[in-house]
Amino acid sequence: MRSLNATVPQPGQGVSPPLRSSRAIRGVVHSAWNSGAMIDVVTAEPAELNRDALEAAETLVRVAFGDRFRTHDWLHGINGVHVLLTDDSELLAHASVVTRTLRHGDAAFTTGYVEGVAVRANQQGRGLGALVMDHAEAIIRAHHKLGALNAIESAASFYAVRGWQLWAGHTQADTPAEYSTPTPQMTGSSSYPMPAPSIGSPNRHR
Q: Using an 8 Å Cβ cutoff, are 95 and 132 in contact?
């Protein structure tokens, strides 16, 4: 696990209680700068996060997505590499990069699939979403051939500005029995692969 220090503006008056993640998370601390006050950027494997940290991250994501976040959606990202932004152990933002295989024709790509991107409501507008995605994308570039995510409609422009490309083609998932089923999506959401190899974006994942 890796941890970085970054700076952001001082938080405004919040309406929700702080979500705390333990200082006991193992990791190495680096430095980063983001226009204001120092925060920690922690990059951690699931085994490196204690129960309190995982519960804080899950609560943050569920509050951010509200009713759009289904009961089992947290499980999709729990086994990924987690990126957590914290200020004095208060969790401000989260993302997870999960290893999956995406296919296009006969080609298969080791893919970093981004899950659970969320920023506390009273911390939005400080650049934390961009900061957490900077680190998620760095993980993808370092360890995967391709990146992908599924974005709700209101977040489409955020990812487009960062260079994520809308996939307008068919998507489906491979089951363990090697049968393919349509990929479920949230209402008003779209799939966005990161700029990929020249043969194009994959259309199947598992």
A: yes
